[in-house]
Amino acid sequence: MLFSYCKFEFCRLFRLELFREMEGSSRSVGRRRSGYSLRKIIGRGGFAEVKLAVHTLTGVEVAIKIIPRKLAPESAKTVKREINILRLLVHPHIVRLYEVVVTPTEIHLVMELMKNGELYNYVVQHGGRLGEDEARRFFQQIISGVDWCHRNRIVHRDLKLENLLLDRHNNVKITDFGLSNVMRDGRFLKESCGSRDYAAPEIISGTPYAGPEVDVWSCGVILYTLLCGAFPFFGENPTIIDMKIKKGVYKCPSHMSPGAMDLISRILVVDPIARITMPEIRQHPWFQQHLLPSASPLSSSLPPSVNLIDEATVQKVVDLGFKAKTVIESLQASVQNKATVSYFLLLDTDNQAIRTSPQNNLLQMDAVDHPGVYFRAPPAVPQKWILGIQSVPAPSGRMAELLRILQELNVRWKKIGNYNIKCLWLHQISACSEPNTSYTYISSETSAQHSLKFEIQMYKGQEDKYLLDLQKVSGPSLLFLEICFSLAGRLLPQNLASLV
């Protein structure tokens, strides 16, 4: 009888203790879950909360984003996309995702802890605006991270001071990829998302956009805010703000330098085609001043040392009880396990400060623009492919010429935007363009066997040149090749002549 009572009392106390821990007990030990000791809540947002935690093997502090598994289908899709994007984006100025731990009721995203909080709070605490040198340092790091997103075909779409976090050395790292999306050739994004104060005119207007251009605009708003302590577009109500954004109406204060003023004026351009691009921002004279190693442009060739694994960090992992061979093989195979998670936690802790010694700079700078530096060898030959039909003329003139050629080829078209059209070509049919109209509408009554649907989009390339990109939507591939050949022959007859 006494044994039964003791057993009952033990179970009751155990359940009580477990309940206290789940309610967020303030015990220093915290709640242990899958190799981490959970501590206090440090943030909440949407359907998730963020807790401070300690990795039990290494003692490194991390932030764990806790998401319930029972979510609406659309929310679950968003979480899955964010996880996939964070796994892809490994960069010194993007908050690192170390691992994903799934429990019966929750999903835990183990992420890098940013001890100094939001850049927004930093600006407020320093008088509302920053000096140009400090603002430039932050901006260089932001551009470095955003540019890496774009190189990996990711558009963030919610860049703002609140989504820029500072580590213990006040280095900026981009976070919150919940609204981000993957860019696909010939496909445009249509969602109006993000914060109004940072939103590009095309998002405010509800017109389709490719992606990078809206992030560029947001970066311009961030730079203006860092330098001025206020948003470039403000008003008494959202309607006035939207109107100013769509017109690109803003004022630069007198204390702003000509260089900063010029860069902002080239970013906050209403026409996305005329807006400055990421490579152009990185080459701007104001941006180039006091350039940080982590903001340096990507070099055309990489030294053989990019395949090195940090031996000192490997030894630290070995000291934890792992075999060196297992650690190295797991790193080379990009395997996520306890050894590799420990490796990257220790490596990032050592490398948070931007190193300045020549011996360390090589690996640090390579890692900036090549986050997979430890696993992937550099390409044998520099990639200099230019995709699409390249041209020098102004985009409006080129589009007018394109529409004329499409009419000659009996192609029907529908304008989606100023530089984006959907096309339908019915093989061996008579001319179908209506006279004296800017565009013709596509009929749904077509023969699928002899019809081709494709899209044409104009992009701004390097050196003030423009690219026409064609993508097949549906129809026979041979018909698509035929129409591409016909368009190229009329747009670039001299280039085509050299091929036949």
From TrEMBL:
Residues 308-348 form the UBA domain. It catalyses: L-threonyl-[protein] + ATP = O-phospho-L-threonyl-[protein] + ADP + H(+); L-seryl-[protein] + ATP = O-phospho-L-seryl-[protein] + ADP + H(+). Residues 36-287 form the Protein kinase domain. Its EC number is 2.7.11.1. It holds the Pfam family KA1. CDD domains: AMPKA_C (cd12122), UBA_SnRK1_plant (cd14335). GO terms for biological process: intracellular signal transduction. Keywords: ATP-binding, Kinase, Nucleotide-binding, Serine/threonine-protein kinase, Transferase. It comes from the Eukaryota. Gene3D superfamilies: Kinase associated domain 1, KA1 (3.30.310.80), Transferase(Phosphotransferase) domain 1 (1.10.510.10). Residues 445-493 form the KA1 domain. It is an enzyme of class 2 (transferase). GO terms for molecular function: ATP binding; protein serine/threonine kinase activity. InterPro entries: KA1/Ssp2_C (IPR028375), KA1_dom (IPR001772), Kinase-like_dom_sf (IPR011009), Prot_kinase_dom (IPR000719), Protein_kinase_ATP_BS (IPR017441), Ser/Thr_kinase_AS (IPR008271), UBA (IPR015940). ATP binds at residue 70. Signal peptide: none annotated. One of its GO terms (cellular component) is cytoplasm. CIPK serine-threonine protein kinases interact with CBL proteins. Binding of a CBL protein to the regulatory NAF domain of CIPK protein lead to the activation of the kinase in a calcium-dependent manner. Belongs to the protein kinase superfamily. CAMK Ser/Thr protein kinase family. SNF1 subfamily. This is non-specific serine/threonine protein kinase.
